[in-house]
Structure formats: C-alpha cells, structure tokens
Amino acid sequence: MAFIATIRLSPVKFPTQFQLLSLESPQPTLSTKSIKFKQLRVNASASIGSSNVPVADKLSTLKKNDYWQWKFSDKSIKIYYEEHEKEGSEPSKNMLMIPTISDVSTMEEWNLVVSEILQQDGSENLRATLVDWPGLGNSDRPKLDYTADVMEKFLSDLINSPGSPVCRSGNDLVVVGGGHAATMAVLAAKKGLMKPAAIIAVAPTWAGPLPIVFGRDSNMESRYGLLRGTLRAPALGWMMYNVLVSNENAIQSQYKSHVYADPANVTPEIVQSRYALTKKEGARYVPAAFLTGLLDPVKSREEFLDIFASMEGNIPVLVVSASGAPKRSKAEMEALRGAKGVSKFVEVPGALLPQEEYPKAVAEEIQRFLLEI
Asked: How many CB atoms lie within 10 A of CB 237?
C-alpha cells in the first residue's frame, strides 16, 4: 500500500488483517454522577439461528440505559452502559459484561447472550450490566494516551467506585469479557484491583494485530510508534484510518475472514452498524493504540498463563474457546486447556466473536458454569 511506503513503516505490504484492527498506574481523582435511567420493557428477540423459543412466548425483561461519569486525569468521560434483568425478579447474581477490544468494539456483542440467559425458565435470576470501554462504542472518545494501564484503571474504578453501575454488586459480581478484555479482567484480579465471584473469559487474547505478526523487537516497536503517531495526527491520521479501518469493504472482509466463523452470518446490517462506530468523533485514538500493541495486557504466553495460574484456589475461571478462531489466537486459547487456574475449559463454534455469532452456545456455557460455582 502506498501510504506504508511513504511513512517507511515496512518494506512489506501489510496482510489483510491490518486493513481492519482484528479483534483480538496513575491514581486520578474519581467522581461519579447519577443520571436518571430510561427504563424500557422489552420482549427479547430471537438470536441468529440460535433460539427455538417463539418470540411471542419469551419472558418480559427490563432494560435500562444511561451514562456513568468517569473522571480520569483532568477529563470527565461519559461511559455508556445498559442493565438487563427479568421483570419483577430479585437478582441472585450480577454480571458485568465487557466487550472485546477492537476498533469497532461495542457492548452489543453481548445482547443476544443476555437475552438467551434471561429467557431460560428455572434459571437463576441475573442482572447483567453491559458497558462500553472509554474511547469505544457509545462512550466518549477523548484524545487520551490509551494504554493497557488506562483500561485497567477504568475497569477497577468501574467495579470499586461508589455510584458506579456495578458497585452495589459487592463480592457477588461475575465479570464476563471477550478477547483482550477477558485477559485484562484476570490481570486486574491478580493485582488485587478487584475481587469478583468468578471470571468468564470468552475467546481470550492478549496480542494486538501488529505485534502478533511482526513481533516486538526494537525496530518494530519504533515503527509501531510511527504508525501510532500518524493515526493520531489531525489530517493524515483520518486519511490512514479511513484506509485501514473506516470503510465497509474492510469491515466486511475482516468479519468474513476471521471475526466470524461462517461468512454467511456477516450481514449488511452488522457491517453498517460497525461502520457507523468508526465515524464517531475521536474514533481512531483507541485503534491506534490497539493496532500497535499498547493495549496488550501481557507481552508473552508465559505471562498469559501466569496470570490465569494466579486464580488457582482464589477465583473460579471459565475459559470459552472458539473452534474456528484464527490460528495464532487459537493457539493462545488452547494453551489454557488444562492450565493451572482455569476451573473449566469449553469450546463453542465461532471465531473471535462467538458470543455474537453463536450466542445460544455461549449463553448455555455461561449459565451452566454459574450453576456450578
């Protein structure tokens, strides 16, 4: 690609996966602000080829959506979240569901999983809180120096701060995350920044697109820095971002090649919804960090296994692997099979977003695990 030669990142052409960023601390003063909820009574719709329950027979659920004000450094950042629960039920467990980190990250990936769980008769009553990361989804996207430490700080503050959407959950909170988010949750638990009742890691990853392919030697790190700076630049940054990420062809290609296992499941509606996210103000700042490895929670498989091992006898952990994940990501998931600290390892259909592509399979494994712990 011409722009790569111009900025002298590499003499080789980037593989297709870099046309879209593939799915895969300081102590600032924190304050929160409560805003009135919008409450909706909804009948959950059937998921893509995954539910045998007629829509008319589904149970009524409550959905609340709002923003939580997260103060980081000198900025007040609006964080979008939703709460889902059965109407009239008193929750026996609370789940925090955090989406896979990517350039098109959105908590919508968990909507059908939550719907499947809440519709099960005789299941434990649950309240699920779905949250968009700062800089992603429907949350504010300020120009921050996004790093894994910043995201870890956000997760810790979200769970521990008075007035946050999940602070009342106490020690009963189950944290569910996909991709990098899953690994970040385990790392935060290892550091003692949170103490959830359990962690569910769906298709966990730890290496960003460029480092997993090109490595992390000093020459490559300098090139990553150059690319990151260019993506954050006012004019050239948008031009490069539009080539790498913000175009429908790139999004469709990535979803069909390795985000979803079955290309037939990549609908025009999915592509359009993700494309819209890339057009929001500040959309390129988190992708600039993710692509170049700044959001990687660990730097090696050894570290990856070590943080999971630290959960042994401490916090129950379910790992949900995806049978159709890309080769490199699949290898990291497989390394957790039988690993110390992993209470249960299961495999479901899918690639890097099994929770969105095969929500019923993921929901069944989550529900089964919750009944076991």
From this structure: 17
